[in-house]
Amino acid sequence: MKIAAIEAIPYSIPYRHPLHFASGSVHDADHVLVRLRTDDGVVGIADTPPRPYTYGETQKSIVAVVQDVFAPQLVGVDIFDREKIQEILYRTIHNQTAKGAVDIAVWDVIGKTLGQPVTKLLGGYTDSLRVSHMLGFKPAPELLALALEFRETYGINTFKLKTGRRPLHLDIEAARVLREGLGEDAELYMDANRGWSANEAAEVLRRTADLGLQFLEEPDDAREILGRRRLVASSPIPIAADESAPNLGEAAKEILNGGANLLAVKTARSGFTEAAKIVGMAEGLGIDVYIGNQIDTQVGTVASVVFGAAFAHTARRAAELSNYLDMTDDLLAEPLQIIDGRIRVPEGPGAGTGVNAEKLERYRTDR
Ligand code: MUC
Ligand code: MG
C-alpha cells in the first residue's frame, strides 16, 4: 500500500455572505482539494483553505508545495508509515494547511483500506458534536437577527463573535446586544484575531465582565509576550490561542509562556496526526481545547467532525462547524446536516470526505 500520486486541485466557490474579521475577509472559497492515490487505487481526499493573513499560504503556494515538494518525497512511502510521512512533511517548515491536508488524505486512505471510519481509528469517543457558529463583523442588530435565525433553523445556541475592531465600543455593544437578545443560556465568546493591544483587550474584558462570556480568543499579537502574559494572568475568563498555536511546538510554547490557557485545535492546519498530539499535550497539562474553524468548506468541516468526535477532550465543548453555510455550494458528496444544534459523524470507511465529481469539474480552476 504505497502512495502513488498526490494531486493538488485549485477550485473556487463564491460565498453567499462574505465573512469579515480583524485579520482579513473571505469572499470566495478559493481552496485546494488534495487527492492522494495509492498503488492499489484507493483515493484519499482533504480540503486546504489558503489563509495568507494567518499562515502565509496562498492557493498557488499550496498547489506548488504539495505537487513540487511533498509529492516527490512521499511517492513510494507506505500509507501506514504515518510517522515517516510526518517526518517528510516536517522537513519543510510552515505550509501548515498543505501539511494538514496531506495528513488527512493519508488517514482517509487508511480508513478506506481497513474498512473503518477514521473517527473510530482515532478514538471513537462519540457520534456527534455540538455546533458553534462564527459571526463576522456586522452591525449589532444584524448580528442578533442572524444568531436568532441560526438558533431557529439549526438549533445552534453557541456563537463566536468576531471582534478586534476600533473603537472598542463597536464590539462591546455587539456582545451586549447578542447577550440581551439571546438570553442567558446562549454560549458566547469572542475572537479578536490580534486586532487589539493587550491593554485594549483588558479594557474590553472589564467592560464586558457582566455578559458571561466564555473566553476570548487571540486578543492581541502573542509575540508581544509580556503584554499577553499580563492579560492571561489578570483575565477573569480563559484566553485562547488560535493562530499563535498553529502546531505542537507553538502550542506548547504559548501554554508554558503563559500566553494562553485554552487552545483552538484546527484539523485544517494540523491534520489529524499533529492535532492528536496537541490534544494529548493539552489534556496532560489540564488545558481545555475546542475544535476551531478555518472558514472550512463541508469537506473541511467533515474532517473537523471526524476528529473532534474521536476524543473526550475535544468533544466536550461546542465545535466551530457551520460556516460552510455562508457558501453558495460545496464539493462534499453527502451534504452535512445540522439538526438540534449538532452534526453527526459520517458513517462508513474513511474520513467522510468524498467529493461530488461533477461539482469538482464545475468549480476547479486549473482547466
Ligand atoms: C478564526 O478562528 O480565526 C479567521 C482567520 C483564520 O485563519 O481562521 C478564521 C477563524
Ligand atoms: Mg481565531
From TrEMBL:
Keyword Kinase among record annotations: no
MF terms in GO: magnesium ion binding; racemase and epimerase activity
Family (UniProt): Belongs to the mandelate racemase/muconate lactonizing enzyme family.
Top-level taxonomic group: Bacteria
Annotated organism of origin: Pseudarthrobacter oxydans
Domain Mandelate racemase/muconate lactonizing enzyme C-terminal positions: 141-238
Any single biological process term in GO: peptide metabolic process
Pfam families (UniProt xref): MR_MLE_C (PF13378), MR_MLE_N (PF02746)
Reported cofactor(s): Mg(2+)
Keywords, sorted A to Z: Isomerase, Magnesium, Metal-binding
This protein's name: L-alanine-DL-glutamate epimerase-like enolase superfamily enzyme
InterPro entries reported in the protein's UniProt record: Enolase-like_C_sf, Enolase-like_N, Enolase_C-like, Mandelate_racemase_C, Mandelate_racemase_N_dom, Muconate_cycloisomerase_anti
